[in-house]
Design a protein that fits this description.
Blueprint (H helix, E strand, L loop, with lengths): L1 E6 L8 E6 L25
Antiparallel strand pairs: 1-2
């Protein structure tokens, strides 16, 4: 099970929620990529 930070409403950082996320299985002609590190910038939540 993956984790995701999701935004379900407008607002500041308080509206960010840390949730379980199921990416499912890739279909024909698709791939699934594992992220080991990501960056979150101020503009991403502005």
């Amino acid at each position: 099970m993956s984790k995701a930070i999701r935004i379900h409403a407008h607002g500041g950082p308080e509206v960010l929620t840390y949730e379980d996320s199921d990416p499912g299985q890739p279909g024909a002609g698709q791939i699934l990529i594992r992220h080991t590190a990501i960056g979150l910038n101020f503009i991403d939540i502005y």
